[in-house]
Amino acid sequence: xxxxxxxxxxxxxMKEVTHEKWNPRVKYAWSCGExxxxxxxxxxxxxxxxxxxxxxxxxxxxxxxxxxxxxKPTDEWVxxxxxxxxxxxxxxxxxxxxxxxEEPILVGVIDIDGASENxxxxxxxxxxxxxxxxxxxxxxxxWKPEGERTGSVTDIKYFKPLEGSx
Amino acid sequence: xxxxxxxxAGMTIFSRRLKETGKEMCFEAVRMALDEAGLELKDIxxxxxxxxxxxxxxxxxxxxxxxxxxxxxxxxxxxxxTGGGTGVLAPIAGWWHVASGVSDVCMVxxxxxxxxxxxxxxxxxxxxxxxxxxxxxxxxxxWIFAMEMNRYMHVHNIKKEDIALVSVKNKGNALDxxxxxxxxxxxxxxxxxxxxxxxxxxxxxxxxxxxGAAALIFAAGDKVGPITxxxxxxxxxxxxxDSTMWTNRDLYFPQYVAKAAKMAYKMAGIHNPFxxxxxxxxYDPFDYKELHHMEGLLLCKKGEAANLTxxxxxxxxxxxxxxxxxGLLGVGNPIAxxxxxxxxxxxxxxxxxAGKRQVPDARTGVCQAWGDLMQYGSVMVMRS
Amino acid sequence: xxxxxxxxxxxTDFRSVTPEVSWKEIMYKAASRAYHDAGIDPRRDVDSxxxxxxxxxxxxxxxxxxxxxxxxxxxRPMITTCGDGIYGLANAFMQIxxxxxxxxxxxxxxxxSDLITYKDVVLxxxxxxxxxxxxxxxYYVAGLEMRKYLGESGTTxxxxxxxxxxxxxxxxxxxxxxxxxxxxxxxxMQSQPMFEPLKKLDIAPLSDGAVVLILASEEKVKELTDxxxxxxxxxxxxxxxxxxxxxxSRAVYAELASQNAYKxxxxxYPKKEIDFAEVDDKFSYKELQHVEAARLCPPQSAGRLVSExxxxxxxxxxxxxxxxxxxxxxxxEASGLQRTLEVALQLRGExxxxxxxxxxxLALSWRGVPTASGACIVLGV
Lengths: 166, 384, 381
Known about the structure:
Oligomer: heterotrimer
Shape of chain B: globular
Number of helices of chain B: 15
Radius of gyration of chain B: 19 Å
CATH topology of the largest domain in chain B: Peroxisomal Thiolase, Chain A, domain 1
Distance between the termini of chain C: 18 Å
Radius of gyration of chain C: 19 Å
Strand content of chain B: 15-25%
Helix content of chain C: 25-40%
Number of domains of chain C: 2
CATH class of the largest domain in chain C: Alpha Beta
CATH superfamily of the largest domain in chain C: Thiolase/Chalcone synthase
Largest sheet of chain C: 9 strands, mixed
Helix content of chain B: 25-40%
Largest interface: B-C, 64 and 59 residues
Structural class of chain C: alpha/beta
CATH architecture of the largest domain in chain C: 3-Layer(aba) Sandwich
Number of domains of chain B: 2
Order of helices and strands of chain C: EHHEHEHEHHHHEEEHEHHEHHHHEE
CATH superfamily of the largest domain in chain B: Thiolase/Chalcone synthase
Number of strands of chain B: 11
């Protein structure tokens, strides 16, 4: 069979064919539940909090009320330092709407110190150039001033290189 | 467990924008599959639809809206969905419809209409993120793949030049695929000079969003005779999901793909995948993913896939032809409808119907899809 | 081939709002209870997991991503069915019948209180070219269907009001229900007209809740429980998706689905061979339409029979003893599992003051406006 069915359209043609538009009104307010509520409240206070499972000893960050490996409730809240290591990173020339940007966004996964292995979160990097970013680099959170914090992951502005580390 | 064989397949062209509506694309693919198998809709007793996020087509519960084009009206019809993994998970669902004895002939139809989403399908991806941990960071989907690619390259010390070879191979292979959207002869330099999206991902490392639909027909072993003397048997299926928290994982190896592959190989009685498999279609939305998934599919040791590519092992005339269809990189990436270049391709290869893409003497093949937030693997092994 | 049975049930109660738990935590609650009930460890004993969800109810594209952790499914086989809970049970049933899986957990939940613009999302399911541009509150489609059904069947609005009275009274005996009430037919008839002839009390209010059922192969059923509930038959079907082309007065999808379930269960006379039923009643008239579609009473007679008490708990054929959606709340995709749960509890003898004397029960679901799709399951001891 040489020709499979379907008629391709160029972006110009796309504007010419008949179409119907709709902008859905879709709004949600998700209950955060116990674990995330506490997590966000602690962020507002400028702190990172995790949760420990006594059965397997894992310290979860971000916290969860149940251990997904033991399938039991976790047992204890644990405060964690706001430092960590770069697990992986990217240098992005695209913003969230796929628009090109001049100044790249530095983003990555930071494994938080004190939590179990590979317990990371995604966040920005700042006060460094793209060339400074390396795997395993030690970083520290830079927080918004207390009055500006709202209980969101963006209460941390970004992670910067930890002073005194290589 | 009943024997189940694939007896027909169909697919539309993949294109950034197709004129057809979602229902029409489904109809085209289903009609093509029915024609190949010499069957009519009345011969089908169950229909399984696979389609990824409703946000693309812009219809809540889109499975319900598509059902007439899928052939599901007044029939036993359902939709399954595991993000990008749907391309192989939907045929697996079709398999269990028949293998369980509930159905004799099952139509599996996958569809995606990403072009409906304005201004760009990327916007629909804005809603895959966790609302508390991730959306406030305003991430772009490419970031997470870039992070996974970077980690993979770092752990195994793999160079972009070697990864780019996959894009060159697949886009080249796609020149022989009638549905291909982005088939082209490109070079490694073309890839390395293409626009940086989010380092280390560049434009030619990525497969494009597409519209498309694909269909497969599965029949029970004792019903296959009258339909075809060239059935392709489903010998192994496996699927596996990993934790939601992708930031709590070391991304260099897709453990969930390995688990799914082990499940499928065990069922198929495969002990040495590299030797026993003649053709492979791992999921390749990015060039590094083909390598990542080859290792996940246990076709080679961790970190070695790039070497095999460099040595030409994965070319159509190599020892393990990989993505002979041209894959997502060459043909297009309409999420669930990629079934056409994964399960569909393996079917056509093993049935000897792959035309210019044909791998000689292909008797055993494996296809795989990957989905969600880098957490889902679905694998199917077929034999002729 | 092996038989398939239910070995464990787990559930939360059904309430209008659940602000103290996230969607993950509500799933975890129901799942933990189900595993405890079955006496199994999900990390060791469960072979496959199935969840039933649609993205737009939850607010995530690819909701599948957010399901494994709270079910115990990390690094295990899991899929999402875009359907009501009984569709999920169908997949589990098939997976076990292939012989590939022995124990499968099926989950469905409603966290619909998280969705602020419910009617806009339901409207979003309408055909974008032919129906959606008309706008309006999508439930008008149910009003149209009710009007046609009443006209064709001779059922009266009072008959539908009897369904509301019955189900809300039944819900008084269901500790899980959130919308119980002691009403009269007059009160229902005088409630605010909404989508004529639908009145406010004819429409099931929304509720949150989660239900998890654990299915197992015959061999495992015998190991795990002394009170197995067997799946005798299961079917699911869709009429056409087109509003313009469908049969408005009959629930054709329910006829097809129940037909398939009866065929599998080798049931020739459903009225005689089934003892009670839990059918979808997101709108009062739907209960009557579904009971007729499943051939549990003579055609076009359900409206008359409900007024005579035929479907009451102490009637000849109890329907929706749990209170149904009118009494428990519309649980969206979890509705079918809530019905199946009630059938299972009844057959196990665990239905408290709602307990019936029964051996075979039926649960039937509908996916709601604007679909014409539903599933049916027959359970027996």
